[in-house]
Each structure stands twice: as C-alpha cells, then as structure tokens.
C-alpha cells in the first residue's frame, strides 16, 4: 500500500491540453445564477439544473438535473458544521481512513480535516476557458479555497505543513465536474491522499451494478483486508462493501440500475483509485447520523481518489485530480 507515486501534474493543470471537460459554453442566452446564503452556495442553470455546496467541508449536498436529485444526504446528517456531513460529496484530505500512526498524517482524524473545516468561497466563473467574455451561459464554475491559515489550531498542530487547496465545482448542462487542486505553499515536501467521498442516490441497491472495475485489484476491508481481483464485470452489492480499487485501467465507472438502465457515469481525471462503500444493515443501524435505518438501500458510495500510497509534493508543486459526472436521471 505504501507505494510512493510521483505527482503526475506539477502545474495548475488548468492548462492541460487533454484535460477532459464537460464544458461547452454557448454564445447567447440566459445566464446561470449563483446565490450565497446561510453558509451555502447555490448555482442554477437556465435549464433549472442546480448544485448546492456547503462552505463547511466544501461539501456538495445537492445536484439536480431534470428536477431529480443525484446526491444522497442522510435525514440525520448534521448540516450545522458540528460534524462531517453524512452524505453529499465530502472532500477527504490529507489522509484517507484512519491515518497510519507511523506517517506524518498519523495524528489526524479519520479522513483528515478538509471535510470538517470551513472553506472560503473564492467566486464563480462561467467557464474555465475564458468563455465568460464570450457570454458562455450553460456552465458555471464555483471555486472554494482552504489553506493552512484557516484550519483549526489542533489540525495545524497535527499536520504542520503549508498547503493551499482549491476545489472547483462546475455545473454544466451535460453534468457536474469536481476537481481538487493541491499546492505545496511551504518550504518542505509533504505527502497526502485525497478522495471525493461521493454518496449517489439509487432506487434499490439490490438492483445496482457497478461497471468498469472488472479485472481490477482491490483491497477488501470487510473480508480480510487482503488483495483480490474483481471477477465481476458488473459488481453487485449484496451485503456490506468496503473496497479500495487500485490503479484502475478504465477511465469510467458506471452505476446501472434495474435491467442495466444507466444511472451515473463517473469519469476519473488524473486519479486512479476508487472506493466502493455501502454499510448495509448492521453498520447503518450503528451510525446515528445515517437515517432512516433502511438508508443503505438508497445509496452507494463511488469515491474517486488517490489513496493507494501517497502523493508527494515538493515545495511549489501542484497536483490536480477529480471527477466528471454524467447523470442519466
Ligand atoms: O464514517 P466515516 O468516517 O464518514 O467513513 C465512512 C466510510 O468511508 C469509506 O470511504 C471507508 O472506506 C469506510 O471504511 C468508512 O467506514
């Protein structure tokens, strides 16, 4: 697991020639709207598609297209900043899971501090490619920032590195894109992991198949913590699942529903791992913030990230990775 990976990007990534994009701004038409209220930023396209992002954790808590909700949030989730949101897309940084005690992140809580820190809203743009000036109207990008200067004293003490995060959430007419940019602002190198812990709504978990993971090696945290190779082309969820799929060759992991009906396509951008998680019956009962008790039937977590080993950033270096989402709702 402790394979050190070289960051595959050392620039901002925004100028990467082959960067996948859902953005296709047009020249005229009504503009997207953005409002900020009660610690939450809401963006809406002229089509009515919308996204809501809490400043707490920069957690996406709603993404609707065609009037339908893509994102699962527990009825008992705390949305008041008292604990990480149970649902949505919490941002995991700088460590995934319980950090190893012998690593620099070892004193941090499970999944690090990004999901339980309050981020700054940095602003919006209609397109990352400068299309705003051409009147681009069918996408809107929201940027959120977190740096070593605005995390808690305890977190800073536990992980005393100078870093800057920019999380960009782009709502387009064809989908949603969420990208995390990590920069080493300090004088010494640091190692990190990142993960977008996305909870997706499904009608019925027993009808779901997760495609695009066939032949991939995964760590099974439920079974034995050991390594296995995925033999199913469409993974079925029939009990508790907690797996880390590593170095996945296929770019896209798709969720399908009853009779193979497409539900969601998740395309990784510059990251190669994906966690599949569903707590099933007993663990759901044991989690006070996951309600109702049959919630496990109505979501699956497909969490893209870089969690197999560590990304190392030298001073001044930058990493960027994330996901492009296409809903079939
Ligand atoms: O309860 P938390 O900290 O939000 O974590 C939920 C789950 O998150 C998943 O990403 C992990 O693989 C699981 O092991 C973990 O149980």
Automatic annotation (TrEMBL):
<keyword id="KW-0413">Isomerase</keyword>
<feature type="active site">
    <location>
        <position position="303"/>
    </location>
</feature>
<dbReference type="InterPro" id="IPR025532">
    <property type="entry name" value="G6P_1-epimerase"/>
</dbReference>
<protein>
    <recommendedName>
        <fullName>Glucose-6-phosphate 1-epimerase</fullName>
        <ecNumber>5.1.3.15</ecNumber>
    </recommendedName>
</protein>
<dbReference type="GO" id="GO:0047938">
    <property type="term" value="F:glucose-6-phosphate 1-epimerase activity"/>
</dbReference>
<feature type="binding site">
    <location>
        <position position="110"/>
    </location>
    <ligand>
        <name>substrate</name>
    </ligand>
</feature>
<feature type="region of interest" description="Disordered">
    <location>
        <begin position="1"/>
        <end position="34"/>
    </location>
</feature>
<dbReference type="InterPro" id="IPR008183">
    <property type="entry name" value="Aldose_1/G6P_1-epimerase"/>
</dbReference>
<dbReference type="GO" id="GO:0005737">
    <property type="term" value="C:cytoplasm"/>
</dbReference>
<feature type="compositionally biased region" description="Polar residues">
    <location>
        <begin position="21"/>
        <end position="34"/>
    </location>
</feature>
<feature type="binding site">
    <location>
        <position position="86"/>
    </location>
    <ligand>
        <name>substrate</name>
    </ligand>
</feature>
<dbReference type="GO" id="GO:0030246">
    <property type="term" value="F:carbohydrate binding"/>
</dbReference>
<comment type="function">
    <text>Catalyzes the interconversion between the alpha and beta anomers from at least three hexose 6-phosphate sugars (Glc6P, Gal6P, and Man6P).</text>
</comment>
<feature type="binding site">
    <location>
        <position position="115"/>
    </location>
    <ligand>
        <name>substrate</name>
    </ligand>
</feature>
<comment type="similarity">
    <text>Belongs to the glucose-6-phosphate 1-epimerase family.</text>
</comment>
<dbReference type="InterPro" id="IPR011013">
    <property type="entry name" value="Gal_mutarotase_sf_dom"/>
</dbReference>
<dbReference type="GO" id="GO:0005975">
    <property type="term" value="P:carbohydrate metabolic process"/>
</dbReference>
<dbReference type="InterPro" id="IPR014718">
    <property type="entry name" value="GH-type_carb-bd"/>
</dbReference>
<feature type="active site">
    <location>
        <position position="197"/>
    </location>
</feature>
<dbReference type="Pfam" id="PF01263">
    <property type="entry name" value="Aldose_epim"/>
</dbReference>
